[in-house]
Amino acid sequence: MILGRFTLKCLLVDYKVMARSRDRTEDFKDAARSAALSLGFSESKVAAILASFIMHKPRQRSPFTKAALKTLESIEALEQFIVKHRKDYVDLHRTTEQERDSIEHEVSAFVKACKEQIDILKNRITDEEGNSKAWLGLRGDNSHVDTVAHKHGVVLILSERLHMVTAQFDQLRAIRFQDAINRAMPRRKLNRVANSESPDILKSNHLELREPEELPAEPLRVQQQLLDDETRALQVELTSLLDAVQETETKMVEMSALNHLMSTHVLQQAQQIEFLYDQAVEATKNVELGNKELSQAIDRNSGSRTFLLLFLVVLTFSILFLDWYS
Amino acid sequence: MALNLRQKQTNCIIRMLNLNQPSNSSGNANEEVYKILIYDKFCQDILSPLIHVKDLRKYGVTLYFLIDKDRKSVPDVPAVYFVQANQSNIQRIIADVSRPLYENFHLNFSSSIPRPLLEDLATGTLKSDSIHRISKVHDQYLEFITLEDNIFSLAQKSSYVQLNDPSAGDRDIEEIIENIVSGLFGVLATLAVVPIIRCPRGGPAEMVASALDLRLRDHLITKNNLFTEGGNLGSSFQRPILCIFDRNFELSVGIQHDFRYRPLVHDALGLKLNRLNVQGEKGAPRSYELDTSDPFWVANGSLEFPEVAVEIETQLSKYKRDVDEVNKRTGGQDGADFDGQDLIGNTKHLMNAVNSLPELTERKKVIDKHTNIATVLLGEIKERSLDSYAKKESDMLIKGGIDRHELLSVLRGKGSKVDKLRFAIIYLLSAETTPQSEVEAVEVALRESEVDTSAFLYVKKIKSLNVSLASANSASKNNIVDWAEKLYGQSISAVTSGMKNLLSSDRQLALTRTVEALMEGRPNPEIESYLVFDPRAPKSSSGTSSSHLKGPFKEAIVFMIGGGNYVEYGSLQELTHRQQLAKHVIYGTTEILTGGEFVEQLTLLGQKMGLGSSSIPSAH
């Protein structure tokens, strides 16, 4: 009916050539060829243009991009290193404490090196910015604004990536601390239990010993009793000392973990505070400039006011004069 | 297999940001890690609900700009363009490539770029001898905005006005249908499904359905097309059903006041692209983001407003309890015991507390945000007495009428002008027959409150025309030559059927009932007259109705032409939750409108028909 006729008409006109897939580069090349021919390019030129689509010239990169890519590679190498040694690090039985310490040491050295590279990149941006500004006499060339912003973005991406990798490693380290604490705790518990058991055993032994040995010589027994008492006292003292030492050990471990945690937070805050400080400094500069502009405006305003007043007065007098004259 | 539109669209965008390379080529990706993203206004709206700016850095995007902005050169970096395929964008791209602003260009168009524009691009870049800088050209078929997992909008403004405009020409209507079809095609291409299309007879729905069917058929002819990319072979049980409706099917839903949280925030405070701007407490405007990452919003979006306030209270008290517990454990009290055991436990609790602090601050932020929103909302509700409007309107729609005295008192009472107009229109739509005296009294009351009555008169005219045209329609079908008038007539009969549905006792929307019936596939008198289109079936068998076309469907895509809102979305989601079988419904519309905006469109139509109380005739 009418419906069918209308829709078919519009569809057949528009959808003669429809894209079948998302990649339209082939269609674009076709269009380029036909456009080149219609513009009257020579055959060789057309062929050259089409060839350039397939084979790209090797791209020259700016030194900044090269350095950024190298830093990215090193961060990825660090990540792979951590992944490779993750099982060794976490599992209690595969490595000794020393090996674990050495892994940690290596990782922190690596992280420091990456951080240095990122800082170099950041300084390079500000240096280049400063250079270009000095060269153009503080005229403020706008054409590099986007490039500078892009470089800042690259540095930001790199530092975020590094942060992610170090966070991963921190998690592993936290697991290691947890294991250390857990190992310390049961030993204490075990000792406590053993402690509470041993005096009982000693006492029961003592009781047992007392009965058959009632008859032998009294002074010997007294001496032995004294000795026994002394050894028992020493034992108790030593075990309590051992307890205290182990407690301090676990406390130290926990404190170092907490310390580490706090330091990351404090560092983050320090960065934020520094950023706020910079912004505040900039704000004061802006306020100063604003004040200057305001005072200039006031001067001009008052200046123009006196001028206007003078003008009106002169006009009034001239009108009066003319009136008196005629 | 649940269709998650948002996920699929995000995946497409991520693939585009990775320069359309397969994701597991690690060595290659290093070469082009840092890129710049350029988009235009429409594509910015597409991107903003999906990706946050800070996530862009994850994919190596260092800078992002609008295409119209004055941009400076950044040598040595590839640029990814995501724009609509129109003439001004092409010109801008040619200018950028010729300068050249960037090292090379990856062009992505949100819909299929037509051949003439492609040739323009080629000619322009050949003239400036910089065509070798264009690396790739892609069609992304992403010209729609996904707001949450299951709701999308085509962002085509004023489609209701244009479709129902009595003075619209054939060419205009065809163009609009064209745009809608291409948007829907993009949705289907992203989901990589070929659905079975059903729609009511007559009206824009039928036109869109048949045009879409033709387009899909045309596209599926080649073997390697967009729909085999997803690897979906489309057996009948896995194919979803696409139901297309026109706004005139159920006009009242677009106008009425609703009292649930999400529609209320959208209607009263103006939620746009999941962003909300409200006046904060200190008078500073604050902007909030309300999307799937906000757990409170997801959980309580469909509750009524008083329940939402209660929910906020409970969350707040729970949060306070948790904070107190954390404080207690970590020595917030006075005495620090030096008992060894406790100290060890203390430090462990301290560590746990520090680790759980970010989560607690997140929760507090969410609670604060919603408290703020609820306070502002409460102010609005009190000022306009929205609760009484919502309640009276729903009563009217269920009972089918309202006491005259009550009606007039509401119209003279509190509320903004738009609220009163909406109330009056709902009154018209709810009653089968409205005595002339009442209607006149309503008009007088509206004019007293200085309300522009064009919209009211337009709906009245539609309703009255329905009485006279209903018989004429069936008799004189052959005589109607003018296309727009026929469309007009169809919309009127649709309005009456929509009104009849409103009179059912259950407050379920007609749309939800119809979709349920269509998905179940059992014979139902309501949907008997609905048309079926199956793009995969060969043309010859389109007459016979094969059984699998009407079988129960597990998934549905519901599309509303002319404007939709969160009320419909909410009721469709309720449908999925109610059923025992896992059903999945995606809701889409040409644009998401608040009640006020929709009434504006009705006003425009009224003025175009010359019905307005304003004496200036609209000149077009």
TrEMBL record, chain A:
Q: Name one GO cellular component term.
A: endoplasmic reticulum
Q: What Pfam families has UniProt attached to this entry?
A: Syntaxin-18_N
List all membrane-crossing ranges.
307-325
From what superkingdom does this record's organism come? Answer: Eukaryota
UniProt subcellular location: Membrane
Task: Return the InterPro entries for the record.
Answer: SNARE, Syntaxin-18_N
**Entry membrane topology:** Single-pass type IV membrane protein
Q: What's a GO biological-process term for it?
A: retrograde vesicle-mediated transport, Golgi to endoplasmic reticulum
Keywords for this protein: Coiled coil, Membrane, Protein transport, Transmembrane, Transmembrane helix, Transport
**Domain spans labelled SNARE-complex protein Syntaxin-18 N-terminal:** 22-103
Q: Which PANTHER family match?
A: SYNTAXIN-18 (PTHR15959)
User: Of which family is this protein a member?
Assistant: Belongs to the syntaxin family.
Q: What is this protein called?
A: SNARE-complex protein Syntaxin-18 N-terminal domain-containing protein
**Organism field:** Tetracentron sinense
UniProtKB/TrEMBL annotation, chain B:
Q: Which Pfam families match?
A: Sec1
SUPFAM superfamilies given for it?
Sec1/munc18-like (SM) proteins (SSF56815)
* GO BP annotations listed: vesicle-mediated transport
- Extract the PANTHER family matched here: VESICLE PROTEIN SORTING-ASSOCIATED (PTHR11679)
- Similarity comment text for this entry: Belongs to the STXBP/unc-18/SEC1 family.
Q: What is the name of this protein?
A: SEC1 family transport protein SLY1-like
**Species of the source:** Tetracentron sinense
Lineage per the UniProt record: Eukaryota, Viridiplantae, Streptophyta, Embryophyta, Tracheophyta
